[in-house]
Each structure stands twice: as C-alpha cells, then as structure tokens.
Amino acid sequence: MADVETDVAAAGIPKKRTFKKFSFRGVDLDALLDMSTDELVKLFHARARRRFQRGLKRKPMALIKKLRKALDKIRAQVAEFCENNNVEKREAPAGEKPEPVRTHLRNMIIVPEMIGSIIGVYNGKTFNQVEIKPEMIGHYLAEFSISYKPVKHGRPGIGATHSSRFIPLK
C-alpha cells in the first residue's frame, strides 16, 4: 500500500529526460573538438585514415575555410546581440544557424570542426542542405545527399518478360 502512494507522488512530478552523451569511438565530443588532426585520424576507419595521410588538397581546405567563415559570422552576431541586450552568451537565442555553404565535394569526410554548419551538397541536380551533427563524424558528405531517385516498381513494360507477350497492347 505504501508503494502505491510513492508511485503516485512520483507520477505528479514530471521525470527529467536524460540524453545520451555523444561519443565517437569512445571519445566524447568535447575531447574530439580539442584533438589535433593526427590524433583524430587515428580514430577514423582505414579509408578515411588513408585520405588524411595523403593530405587534404586545395578544394577540401577551401570548403573548411568557408565553413569557418560562416560560423565566425554567426558567432559575431550572437556576441553583438549579447552585448546590445546585456545578456550572457548562454542566454542568447539558440536558434541561430549559419548560412549554408554550397559544395560539389561529395567525397569530403566530416570532421568535428564542421559540426553545426549547414552544407549544400550537390547531388547532380540540386544542392541538398545538410546540417552537420555529431553522429555524422567520419562519414562522407555524399551519404547525406542521395544522388539517385529510389526505384518504385510499377507494372512491367512490354517485352520485359516472356509472359508480357500475351498482354494486349493498349
């Protein structure tokens, strides 16, 4: 009987939601952001390690510079907002997002520095906007911008199978 009363009392107070803390291969997000590139590369899969060991060429570095510029711009706006309204940074509006950076580099590997950025990834026809989240680290940009339209199978056409010879033409 006493157990029932404690359950009712507990039910009156909404339970606080606990969120799983993100970690990539056992390393939490804060540590990933502080890591040097050499330490970070050791955590990646073999194909990504090989790519980074061969060095990032001009195009991937240009993309990272554009992303830094977009993030710096939004950080400056938040700092200005906090200054003008006498608010602390943690009370600043959380919905601020950087402007999208368009790219054709579908083979770029996502690194922790990109988190929070919005990237327009070209799929051969349009730029699909992708917001980079911590779960995407180590993946290619192409994985989040599908380049083909998945097949929706309808009725078979004429000549598709031997039995379709007997389907009358419409």
Automatic annotation (TrEMBL):
Cross-referenced HAMAP family: Ribosomal_uS19
Cellular component GO terms held in the UniProt record: cytosolic small ribosomal subunit
An individual GO BP term: ribosomal small subunit assembly
Organism: Fagus sylvatica
GO terms assigned for molecular function: RNA binding; structural constituent of ribosome
Key word Ribonucleoprotein present: yes
Descriptive protein name: 40S ribosomal protein S15
Keywords noted in UniProt: Ribonucleoprotein, Ribosomal protein
NCBIfam families for the chain: PRK04038.1, uS19_arch
A matching Pfam family: Ribosomal_S19
Record family assignment: Belongs to the universal ribosomal protein uS19 family.
